[in-house]
Amino acid sequence: EGRLAEREMELRKREEPLPGRALFVILLLCVSGGRAETAWYSVPEEAARGSLLGNIVKDLGLTAEELSTRQVRLVPEGEKQYFQLDQHTGDLFVREQMDREELCGQSEPCLVRFDVLLEGPLQSFRAEVSLTDINDRAPVFLNKEIILKISETTKPKARFLLESAQDPDVGNNSVHHYNISSNGYFHIYTRQRSDGRRHAELVLDRELDREKQAEVVFSITAVDGGSPPRSGTAVIRVVVLDANDNIPVFTQSLYKVRVLENSSEDTLVAVVSAKDLDSGMNGEIAYSIVQNSEDNRETFKINSETGQIRLKKTLDYEEIKTYEIDVQATDGGGLSANCKVEVGVQDVNDNAPEVTITSPTSSLSEAAPLNTVVALFSVRDRDSGNNGRTSCEMLGEQPFSILSLVGEAYALVTLEALDREKVSRYNVTVRANDAGTPALSTSKTLVVRLSDVNDNAPTFSQAIYNMVLRENKPAGTILGRLNATDADAGENALVSYMLVLTPLGVSAAGSFLSVEAESGIVRALHPVDYEEVHAIEVTVRAADGGSPALSAEALLRVLVRDENDNAPVVLHPPPDGSAAAGELVPRWAQAGYLVAKVVAVDADAGQNAWLSYELAKATEPGLFRVGLHNGEVRTARAVTERDAPRHRLVVLVRDRGQPPRSSTATLTITLVDGFSEAFLQLSQAHAGSPQQEEGDHDLLTTYLIASLCCISSLLLVVIAAFSGTTLCKGRLCPALPNSSARCSADS
């Protein structure tokens, strides 16, 4: 460290200009596990953009692998970024030209600080860049003509303080010495103040004689120490006065005072006093301030008669901490004396902390892990001591925390898991407080918006969708609509629908139904025949537009409703005429004799398949009758000799659909005499009276009604028992001790 400091002093003493890029890098390594914690660099002011400062990866003891795998950011101390980092090589370059006089004024050294932040894991380092001065400003005299009144009785070697030239540069580049042109009476002497500035004193070489030369005029040149040097010139006009043998004498050669920086304008700073032993005009003293700096001229004023020094404007401890004022007392004869007033500015807590967001995050993923950096900010207080000590806090309950980094840098990081579906935006207010009395604070609000990730699957409004399709409806018939919602946003919330096809007999549900992907509308692909398919059951899926996509499933049941689209089909007698020979009936057949039975079926279901029979047409209408429900053809009366031998019957078979459909069956009946007595008796044994047939039908109807009532009653009893058991388990059991066991035993 000692050698590095000596090297820095040696380079600062050089008078030749620095090149456009940094000549040296001074590193102070606070070694912790072999890694630098602070890097120091030096660069000339107004260095060109792209000038190389050094390789920060090597200077901080990092590796090339760390540079490629970890994100590196430069966090400036202020709002402006003057440097940039090559993320591939680790080289540090100048991003913006810097004016040392604008950034630091007369302060030395002039340091520009920034932090180097590495993520994954989070780690920070401090870097400081020293701006070295270049000779870009020439000395300037505030007054182009300096008038001195000197008595002709002034002895040689007398010294006269001159107005100093102003040069914003520092060090060797500031005012180095003064020269005056040849005049025969004076030479110049350059003195250095305690603050490092140089001022000129005019030394009298030989006595003046007003009668020979009333005025002496010559030029003064202020030359700085730069290379090449710069200079500024003014004219000195010396007015030779008549004899005044007493000069004013100040009561003190040095006045020291302290003033609060928040003192208002026209506040009394100090009172200087001088006495002159002369009388009359030569004893009258006028006070003035020798303008040796622009700051003094703008800040202080003096009452020429009383010597009261007052403020012309308020002071700022953060800009200038100490002022040195040269006061001159001049009597009426032109003799003068000088004293120095040293004004120390006392700091008060007049600056609130400044919060600067250096790296805000416009959007944060809701899936961000814990300790993810949301924003980087710095807190700065221009006051000193306790007034400049700051602390930082976050207002309100938020899922974030503030992590202190190196120096005055902070990071806002996530503290817990985020959920955009619950809160999509946070207004995070950060407040910085100082330790002054009274304490000052500054708040800054950062808006954090959460970006969506696909973490919510779609949700159907129903677990089971029941729809009805009438058979024979045309293709494209709308059966209903599926509805699913997704709590996510954007493409993650776009829901598309599809069928999850499974085998259904020998065909698939996909051949009967379709679902519109965007709207969820369910349509029939083609007409469906109830006689082939009674119901369709298929799984439907809703998938969102995320990557990877999430989905949910529901059950779609489509009941096919029967239509009366099938007419009854006669099985007997055969429609092909194979029974053309007809039926044989003996002439002695009695009433109720069973002649034949018409057998028919209907492919429909329910009422559409209930059949009734009636005699539509007969050769002799009163001879035969047809059973309404069973289709049996019997004799309505006894056959006589007068009846025709051949009869033709047309039986109408009709279903109960709306509208009803029907078919006909044709019977040919022949009356014959050749039946045996046994055949006749057998026929009579099987035959019954019409009243008996109607009684049998009524008995069958009664049996059917009784069976239906029994089944309905049994179903009601089962439903009541199941409801009672569920009520006991769901409501009574949780309210009673040991209720689970009791309910289980009851059930």
From TrEMBL:
Pfam families: Cadherin, Cadherin_2. InterPro entries: Cadherin-like_dom, Cadherin-like_sf, Cadherin_CS, Cadherin_N, Protocadherin/Cadherin-CA. GO terms for molecular function: calcium ion binding. It is found in: Membrane. Residues 35-141, 142-250, 251-355, 356-460, 461-570, 585-692 form the Cadherin domain. Its main location: membrane. Gene3D superfamilies: Cadherins. It is a single-pass membrane protein. GO terms for cellular component: plasma membrane. Coiled coil: none annotated. GO terms for biological process: homophilic cell adhesion via plasma membrane adhesion molecules. The chain crosses the membrane at residues 700-722. It comes from the Eukaryota. The keyword Lipid metabolism does not apply. Keywords: Calcium, Cell adhesion, Glycoprotein, Membrane, Repeat, Signal, Transmembrane, Transmembrane helix. The keyword Coiled coil does not apply. Potential calcium-dependent cell-adhesion protein. May be involved in the establishment and maintenance of specific neuronal connections in the brain. PANTHER family: CADHERIN-87A (PTHR24028), PROTOCADHERIN BETA-1 (PTHR24028:SF118). This is PCDBE protein.
